[in-house]
């Protein structure tokens, strides 16, 4: 198998002019030309993040495992009215400041008042990307590059990728584990491995100053003790292939740990080692505790094996949200900020909502490069055949 670390640069792949950010072009003026791919954008925090990006004039491609659902939601978001009060008057000072700075306004044709304004929204496109099946992930990436980007935006490049989609999964009982066509657990594929393949296939389709945002969670800190200093101690292979976890650690915590490790691997290989010189940053974020549909879906899945525990877990989640929860709009903003805020120039960092932190403050495993390399090498073995088959189609 050939090495995929020596792929040609994006300049060799396309003649499109990269979107440059320089002193003569204010960042906010580039927003209407920006295109962001956001996975899991049909509900919850992903949908809200897409909605906020559209409000800023950014073009957004949202994905779902259901193509009809993705297109329907994209159409609805394009048709929704944008209310200035909804974002421009947020209680959160940082959120308000960024939106006031970047929001593109044009005179309202329906009003003669010079102070009246409406907002120029971006374009929203919905597409299928079933992260559970690596074959379908690769096919969707080809369709994105060959059809969706050229037909809808007149380019073959992206400005950002937000790895947002995720599933909670089972309770760690291997009898209830759902495996994908490649033989690994559904939660591992949707939360981590599908995104790994997608990012790799699309890495040369990111324009200059491109950004990758990985959505993680503080469930890693809460559920995985620092006494686990290696993946073997966590029985990671049992989780990947059988969704059998260590003690009471839920599969979701494992997979969010993998997502965080993935972000740091991309930073090391693509930013530090300059394998993707056009890439500006790769960061990961815990957007906050929100009452999204993930908690409801987890309850429904857990009810199949243990109805009592399902309602207990759901109740605990509600209590946690009551004391430390935030609105979905604020959680979505924390994702958007890493993708668009010009003041964020760092890479390889962990953001706890708005606060920038060092990954060592998240979990000790993230500081161990040899452990991250284990995950990278294992992932490459699985996705290698798909890179071999589909990379030429994306690069042509």
Automatic annotation (TrEMBL):
InterPro entries: NAD(P)-bd_dom_sf, SDR_fam
Chain positions covered by the region annotation Disordered: 1-27
A Pfam family the protein falls into: adh_short
Name of the protein described by the UniProt record: Uncharacterized protein
Family label: Belongs to the short-chain dehydrogenases/reductases (SDR) family.
Key words, A-Z: Oxidoreductase
GO molecular function: oxidoreductase activity
């Amino acid at each position: 198998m050939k090495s995929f670390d020596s792929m040609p640069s994006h300049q060799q792949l396309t003649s499109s002019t990269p979107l440059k950010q320089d002193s003569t072009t204010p960042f906010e003026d580039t927003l209407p030309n920006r295109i962001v791919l956001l996975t899991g954008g049909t509900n919850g925090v992903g949908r809200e993040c897409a909605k906020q990006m559209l409000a800023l004039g950014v073009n957004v491609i949202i994905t779902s495992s259901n193509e009809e659902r993705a297109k329907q939601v994209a159409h609805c978001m394009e048709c929704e009215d944008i209310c200035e009060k909804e974002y421009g008057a947020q209680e959160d000072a940082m959120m308000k400041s960024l939106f006031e700075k970047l929001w593109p306004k044009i005179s309202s044709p329906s009003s003669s008042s010079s102070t009246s304004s409406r907002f120029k929204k971006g374009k929203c496109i919905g597409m299928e990307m079933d992260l559970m099946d690596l074959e379908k992930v690769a096919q969707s990436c080809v369709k994105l590059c060959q059809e969706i980007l050229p037909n809808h935006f007149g380019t073959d490049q992206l400005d950002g990728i937000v790895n947002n989609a995720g599933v909670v999964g089972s309770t760690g009982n291997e009898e209830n584990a759902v495996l994908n066509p490649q033989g690994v657990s559904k939660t591992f594929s949707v939360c981590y491995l599908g995104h790994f393949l997608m990012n790799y296939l699309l890495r040369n389709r990111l324009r200059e100053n491109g950004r990758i945002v990985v959505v993680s969670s503080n469930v890693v800190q809460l559920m995985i003790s620092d006494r686990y200093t290696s993946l073997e101690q966590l029985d990671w292979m049992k989780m990947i292939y059988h969704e059998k976890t260590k003690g009471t650690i839920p599969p979701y915590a494992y997979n969010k740990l993998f997502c965080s490790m993935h972000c740091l691997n991309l930073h090391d290989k693509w930013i530090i080692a300059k394998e993707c010189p056009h890439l500006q940053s790769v960061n990961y974020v815990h957007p906050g505790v929100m009452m999204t549909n993930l908690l409801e879906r987890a309850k429904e899945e857990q009810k199949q094996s243990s109805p009592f525990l399902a309602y207990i877990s759901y109740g605990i989640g509600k209590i946690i949200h009551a004391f430390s929860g935030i609105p979905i709009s604020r959680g979505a903003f924390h994702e958007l900020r890493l993708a668009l805020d010009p003041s964020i120039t760092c890479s390889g960092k962990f953001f706890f909502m708005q606060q920038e932190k060092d990954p060592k403050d998240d979990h000790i495993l993230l500081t161990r490069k040899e452990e991250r390399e284990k995950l990278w090498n294992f992932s490459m073995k699985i996705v290698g055949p798909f890179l071999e088959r589909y990379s030429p189609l994306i690069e042509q």
